Amino acid sequence: MRELKFYGTPPPGVEAEDYSGKLIVIEGTDGVGRSTHTAMLRSWLEARGHAVIDTGMTRSVLAGRGLKEAKTGTTLGRLTMQLFYATDFADRLENEMLPALRAGFVVLTDRYIYSAIARAAVRGVDARWIRSVYGIALVPDLILYLRVGRAEELVSRVLAAGRKFDYWESGMDLNLGEDFYDSFVEYQARLLREFDRMAGEYGFRVVDASRPVRRVAADLRRAVARVLEAEESEGRMGDEPTVARQR
Amino acid sequence: MISYGKHRLPGKLFVVEGTDGSGKSTQLALLHQWLKAEGYPVFFSEWNSSPLVKDTTRRAKKRRLFTPTTFSLLHATDFADRTERDIIPPLKAGAIVLADRYIYTAFARDVARGCDRAWVRDLYRFAVKPTVAFFFRAPLDVAIDRIVSGRPELKHYEAGLDMDWSDDAEESFKIFQGRILEEYDRMVSEFGLTVIDATRSIVRQQREMRRIVMRHLAGEEAVA
Hints:
The complex is a heterodimer of chains A (247) and B (224). Chain A has 247 residues and is of the alpha/beta class. Chain A contains 9 helices and 7 strands, in the order βββαβααβααβααβαα.
């Protein structure tokens, strides 16, 4: 059991009760393999008998559709975009993540507040402001950061996935380059720098994502297993605290 | 991002605030007519009007999807869009912008719903500080009478029914409006709101409003 801990001011109406689930975050820039690894972790956890829900940006019942529609145009201002994402996040936090954590689920989230903070930072949005907005966020049990060293590496992954360069993933609203390719590389490079900066601040568990999927997946499993085992052994220690401490 | 009070824009921003039924929209419409007739370039912007956010808000109200936090955040999203699109550009161009409800509406409503006072204020830190923020103050019973008699049914969120204060819409609405009025009252000194006594005649309120607005337009060019 763990007490709910928030980065700043908790949302009103959230009771400060203990929860038995685990909040595990998969973070990383676009094309780094987050969804692949989230899916693999999910099946692995379920095979081990854990109840899992997964969530990710723009998937909220409240704001998901509106946010996706707003992104089809190019009139979404930078502050408006940040707050639309924050609304989407809050809806998933209050209606999906917190109830599942209370019920003892493992919550896997494909991105959390860190992507939002990185995107805000590269758009020159006040760092203190965006952190205050996301003060409502629960501190996760584990933040796995899938890291690649160079933005160019992401290009081949996007191409290999058969996708085109997306307007927002390429940071086209920032006028960084001649075309989608130049802009993508520059934008992702800036995001990488922001993530590196946040790694210490938020205690990311950094995983080198330049390696083959199999090896990355093995690292992720090990890290997740450690968090889950810590919980299980804590439970045992709870029965006989003195004995456990003497060992 | 430029913070509240730090914008240096040549235009003028006048906003009206107050509980439902305080008569503020009527007063702003009269001011709008007058400024246009005087030849000033004037733009109007109202609460909850962003085309990007509108559908989401409507759907969420209908399906009752809001919590106090998401209610607050979605309204801030709407306001950010209006700020980036309808408020800052005309102010940069030196125009007059009139806003029916502004950030103080959010501060009053969201805090009445239990949101943290400091968190909500920080959420709106990007807002332009108004040249004058008029607060049309009507005693609770007057405002409630005006709304309840003029409307067949109170809406769910309008009445604060999401907060479970009371099952009765009218009773819940009274509790909600009472809390909102308390929040407005504490903001008068915090934000230097200009209080207008909303129990006086429409003509007298408008005269006072124009006098105050005029003072801020002295030296401004009206485009005849």
